[in-house]
């Protein structure tokens, strides 16, 4: 087997892993049933209604034999045509999967290589700003602050790209333990306090009880809370209000983020969790935050969706099983 054939086999395995089944196997079973059913009917009509050996002699027997032969040929030709179509579909899916992998690996490599020089620039800017190499005036400080903010945005993009690559490659290490989603949320609220104050946004917390335990990865759940709360802050106007609900519903923990933003058109809601999707190009962001959030939620066998309409804000809902050890799918 040459290198090209080996790569094709690897790509096919990746497609099968994503589908979680072998489409060839199901196709063969389905076509076999299609073939068997008409022959069963044919046999039933012969044997049960008017079968006699005389039927197989003479013109009627010849007609039956020709009909049988045509049926077999027809099913064989149909099988080959449909199998060829299925081959092409799976081949193009495998090629697309391979192309995505190459692009993802390339982006991750470039992102990783950018981290070190960015860190060096960040440290040097901090040293200049702090006056370690000489006093600087207010205008110079303002320019350095602008550069530092730009570097922070690039750094966030790099981290998002690297996280996305790890998730797509299945290289994410999920460390599950019993943790308190209320405690996690309170920490993230403190981190985002400055962003809330800058826009004079009121955050209304509606938390059920003092502790809501969930079996999950604390760091990754923190990322979910931070991403969704940051998203709500970004789209809520100044002096607006955000409602953050946490409660338990049967075996699931539910999180709701209600903002007073412009809302999302119904034809764009399905694209919201796509990678690099930015519905508002004027707002800062990488277009990866919600995609990564969705991936993390699904790692925990949870669900995330949004309810929104133009002019009425948005409500993001997350459901997480409180104990993954007893959840089966």
Your description of this structure?
- This protein has helices spanning 3-19, 23-50, 59-129, 138-168, 181-191, 193-198, 218-235, 289-299, and strands spanning 177-180, 202-207, 213-216, 241-249, 252-258, 303-308, 314-321.
- It has 329 residues and is α+β, with helices and mostly antiparallel strands.
- It has a 5-stranded mixed β-sheet with strand order 2-4-5-7-6, with helices on one face. Strands 1-3 form a two-stranded antiparallel ribbon.
- The two termini are 38 Å apart.
Layout of helices and strands, plus pairs?
Elements: H1 3-19, H2 23-50, H3 59-129, H4 138-168, E1 177-180, H5 181-191, H6 193-198, E2 202-207, E3 213-216, H7 218-235, E4 241-249, E5 252-258, H8 289-299, E6 303-308, E7 314-321
Helix pairs in contact: 1-3, 2-3, 3-4, 4-8, 5-7, 7-8
Strand order across the largest sheet? 2-4-5-7-6
Q: What is the typical, i.e. mean, pLDDT?
A: 76
Low-confidence stretches: none
Broad shape: elongated
N- and C-termini, Cα separation: 38 Å
* Radius of gyration, whole Å: 30 Å
Oligomer: single chain
Class derived from helix and strand content: alpha+beta
SSE pattern, N- to C-terminal: HHHHEHHEEHEEHEE
Beta percentage is 5-15%
Main sheet overview: 5 strands, mixed
Number of continuous helical runs? 8
How many E strands? 7
- In which range does the helix fraction lie? 55-70%
Summary of the model, kept short:
Helices cover 59% and strands 13% of the residues.
Give a quick set of tags describing it.
single chain; 329 residues; alpha+beta; five-stranded mixed sheet; two-stranded antiparallel ribbon; 8 helices; elongated
């Amino acid at each position: 087997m040459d290198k090209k054939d080996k790569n094709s086999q690897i790509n096919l395995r990746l497609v099968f892993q994503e589908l979680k089944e072998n489409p060839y196997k199901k196709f063969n079973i389905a076509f076999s049933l299609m073939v068997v059913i008409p022959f069963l009917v044919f046999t039933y009509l012969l044997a049960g209604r008017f079968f006699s050996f005389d039927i197989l002699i003479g013109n009627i027997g010849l007609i039956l034999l020709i009909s049988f032969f045509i049926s077999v040929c027809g099913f064989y030709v149909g099988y080959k045509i449909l199998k060829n179509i299925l081959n092409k579909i799976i081949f193009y899916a495998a090629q697309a999967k391979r192309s995505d992998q190459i692009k993802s690996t390339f982006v991750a490599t470039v992102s990783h290589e950018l981290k070190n020089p960015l860190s060096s620039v960040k440290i040097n800017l901090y040293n200049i700003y702090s006056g370690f190499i000489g006093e600087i005036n207010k205008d110079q400080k303002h320019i350095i602050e602008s550069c530092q903010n730009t570097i922070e945005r690039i750094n966030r993009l790099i981290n998002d790209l690297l996280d996305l690559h790890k998730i797509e490659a299945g290289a994410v290490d999920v460390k599950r333990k019993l943790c308190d989603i209320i405690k996690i949320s309170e920490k993230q609220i403190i981190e985002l306090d400055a962003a809330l104050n800058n826009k004079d946004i009121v955050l209304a917390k509606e938390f059920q009880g003092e502790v809501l335990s969930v079996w999950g990865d604390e760091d990754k759940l923190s990322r979910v809370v931070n991403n969704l709360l940051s998203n709500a802050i970004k789209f809520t106007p100044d002096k607006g209000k955000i409602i953050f609900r946490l409660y338990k519903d049967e075996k699931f923990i539910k999180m709701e983020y209600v903002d007073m933003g412009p809302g999302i058109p119904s034809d764009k809601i399905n694209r919201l969790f796509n990678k690099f999707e930015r519905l508002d190009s004027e707002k800062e962001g990488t277009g990866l935050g919600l995609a990564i959030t969705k991936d993390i939620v699904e790692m925990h066998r949870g669900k995330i969706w949004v309810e929104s309409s133009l002019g009425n804000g948005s409500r993001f809902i997350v459901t997480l099983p409180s104990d993954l050890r007893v959840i089966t799918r």
